[in-house]
Structures are given as C-alpha cells and as structure tokens.
Design brief:
Strand content: 15-25%
CATH architecture: 3-Layer(aba) Sandwich
Oligomer: single chain
Number of domains: 1
Largest sheet: 9 strands, mixed
Order of helices and strands: EEEEEHEHEHHHHHHEHEHHH
Shape: globular
Helix content: 25-40%
Number of strands: 9
C-alpha cells in the first residue's frame, strides 16, 4: 500500500464484550470484521494521547491473554493491542481455513492496514514470533521495532519435548490424541501445558491456574479447537521446509526493524542454542538470555521483558517522552 492510499475501512467493529472470555482490569475486548476473517482484539486505554501503537501476537494454542501481564507494564510507553489469531482465543476460524504462517501473517497485515495503526512496535511469541518475522520482512513499513520471545524459527534438530507439537501436524494424530486423552480433565491438561511452557511452573498462582483451566474448558467446547491447533501446527512445520526467499531464516535476514530477541534457558519447545543464530540473522538485533525462563518469558518475567523493551526504545531513539507527547509528536 502506497503512502498516498488510505487504509481500507473496517467492515464491522463490535462493541466490547466479555462473555465467557476473561478480560483483566483495564482491558477491553472487541471484534473486528475484515474480508475473510473476524479478529478479536484485546486492548488497554493508552496512558496518554500520542503514544506509538504496539501489537502483540501469541503462540500456538495461546491467545491475546498471554500478554495481559506485560501490557500494563508498558502503559506509559506504547498504546497496546493484542490480537487473537484466527481460530484462537475469541477469534473464529478464517473463512478459507488457511492456518499457515503466511495466512496468520496476512491476518495481522490486514488488520494493521485496515486500522491504520502502522508502523507499530510488534511483539511475537513462539508461532507468533514466526508470524511477526514474516510480517516485518514483507511489510517493513508496518513495523517500528520487533520483539521476539522464543520465536518458532526452524531448527535442524528439534528438542524431543517439542516433538508432540510437531506430531499434531501429521494427519490423524490429533484425532488419535483426542481419543486417547478424552478422559483427561482440563486441570490435567493445563498442568501439562504449564510444565512444558514454564521454566518453573511453581510461579503460577492458584488464581492464574484457575483462570487457565476455565479458559481451556471454554475453548475445548469450541467445535474448531483441535482443527485450529492441527492446521496451525501443520502450517508451522510446512514453513520450516520452505527454502529460498520464503524461508523464515532468509526472511529474518530481511527484517529492517531493530529487533529484541528473548530466549529462555529452560525452554522445552524452542532450543536455547538457537539464540545466537537468531542474533546473527536479524541485522539489527539485541539478545536477552533468561537462564531460568521457559517458553513464555513475557508471562514468567514480565518486568524483565518490559525493562528490556524500554532499553530497546532508548537505544533506538524510539522512546517517546511525556513532554514530546504533550507537544503532539
């Protein structure tokens, strides 16, 4: 889209609703209708006018709620929105059933173009890290900075603990897994996910655990839950096999935006050894290594992530002071 073109008008914007979806204090949730997709957007009112926009993109099986711990810590720095990718959180499946990394990236781009919010400070975790890498590579005009938390970029030798996720991409495996685990309670499933994603699951409070169980119960009741998981897993595996200019590592090399990379030493899904390769691939990168963190550092150590992002803004000259905002910059 050229600089002289206006962004397309949002097809529909539904007033904020809570329903069965948890909305933390200070947040609101709204649905945005776009051609072929409807996206649920979680946001916080900006601390003041004129703050630059930020968009957060979750990982496989996650939702915009994954960013609820970090967003309040950045209230004075950015105007925060987090998206539920199609088929996840409170967003229904895409009309075309496209759950590829490119399909998810297209949804993010479509929203940013329609909302006219770009360029944004773009955040991505896991699958969302692959999606936002692709967005930053193909649409540099939409991205101010890129912050990647355990991005799902291709590994030659994936960790054994990551194999079950990859196996979901195999036809029939999701149906078999559903059959074999039909007696599992939501509590058992959540404990398993937390054991896999957190460096220390013991830091999860009882309240946070109950909320995660309630959210999983809600999503397991959705008729498309396993389809979205399976097809997104398949889309990620397929993205790993792409070569040439469409390969994720090649696209990482094309990213122009200053990039903050955050890796956890106890990550069981994305190899800690990939951190230095990523730091070499992204041309303007900073690396934060958290030895005790797992796969979701923004949930485990939100204050540390917020501090690192603040330093990124200071280092790159992107930090907007209150006096500058007051002057209308």
């Amino acid at each position: 889209m050229s600089s002289t073109e206006l962004p397309p008008v949002l097809a529909t914007t539904v007033t904020p609703r809570v329903g069965a979806v948890r909305v933390a204090a200070g947040e609101r949730l709204r649905s945005v209708g776009l051609p072929g997709i409807t996206l649920s957007i979680r946001s916080r009112p900006p601390a003041r006018e004129g703050l630059p926009p930020a968009l957060y993109v979750h990982g496989l099986g996650g939702s915009s709620q994954n960013w609820s711990g970090l967003m309040p810590l950045l209230d004075g720095l950015v105007d925060s929105e987090a998206v539920d990718l199609p088929g996840f959180g409170d967003s229904p499946p895409p009309d075309d059933g496209n759950y590829s990394v490119t399909g998810h990236a297209r949804a993010v781009i479509r929203y940013l173009d329609a909302a006219g919010r770009g360029p944004v400070h773009l955040f991505g975790n896991s699958l969302g890290g692959a999606v936002t890498t692709r967005v930053a590579a193909v649409r540099p005009d939409l991205v101010r900075t890129l912050t990647l938390v355990s991005p799902a970029l291709p590994e030659i030798r994936a960790q054994r603990t990551a194999w079950p996720t990859a196996l979901l991409a195999v036809p029939g495996v999701a149906r078999l897994f559903t059959s074999l685990t039909k007696e599992w309670s939501a509590e058992q499933r959540v404990r398993g996910v937390m054991a896999l994603c957190y460096g220390d699951p013991g830091i999860v409070t009882p309240e946070a655990f109950r909320e995660a169980v309630e959210e999983l119960e809600r999503r397991l009741a959705l008729p498309y839950f396993w389809d979205a998981m399976t097809r997104s897993s398949r889309g990620l595996v397929n993205a790993y096999t792409l070569g040439g200019q469409h390969g994720l590592w090649r696209q990482a090399e094309r990213v122009l935006a200053p990039t903050l990379l955050i890796y956890g030493g106890r990550d069981q899904l994305v190899g800690y050894r990939m951190a230095h390769r990523a730091a070499r691939a992204f041309r303007d990168s900073r690396l934060l290594s958290l030895p005790e963190a797992g796969h979701v550092a923004m949930m485990e150590y939100p204050e540390t992530v917020a501090t690192a992002f603040h330093e990124l803004l200071t280092d790159t000259g992107e930090l907007v002071s209150s006096s500058a905002v007051g002057a209308g910059s």
